[in-house]
Structure formats: structure tokens, C-alpha cells
Amino acid sequence: MTETAGTLSDMISIDNTDAYVARPEAPGSYPGVILAHQLFGLTADVRAAADRIARLGYVVIARTSFTDQNGLWCLPQLPRAAPGASRSWAP
Question: Which of 9, 20, 75, 83 can pair with 62 through a Cys bridge, CB separation 3.0 to 4.6 Å?
């Protein structure tokens, strides 16, 4: 567990993928935010953004969209995972 100016944060594992969790330092019940990362994964910038949101009074989970076993799963598998989805990304 790491403390960053008003927040507590830690790396955890969810279904064998890494996730960063940040929450306000004060005990209590807080609303939650799921933070999606950009193309480069769960970087220091994403973790810093989670910390900033946590300082505003939210529990933040930023889960990586990359896995060691399957590579990138978020975008390439989306069309196949959606029921009735076509293989095209055209709007």
C-alpha cells in the first residue's frame, strides 16, 4: 500500500491481470470510478490520474487491458465478443 498526498493506493490482481486501486486516505464509504488506460497500458500517468481522482473523493480502479497470456484483449476481441457483432469497425 502506498500513500500519496491524501490517497492510499496499491497494485492488485483481478482475474490474473494487474489493476491499480486508489482511494481517499480518510476511512469511509466512497463512490467508485473505473479508469480506462490509453494505448500504452497502465502507465505512471494513468496511476497519477487515479490518484488525482481519489483525492476528489472516489475509489478508483484502473485495470490493465493487456494480459501476459493472451496479449491485447480489449480492442481485437471486442467485435468477436459482442453478440451479433460484425467484423468491421466502420460506423
Answer: 20
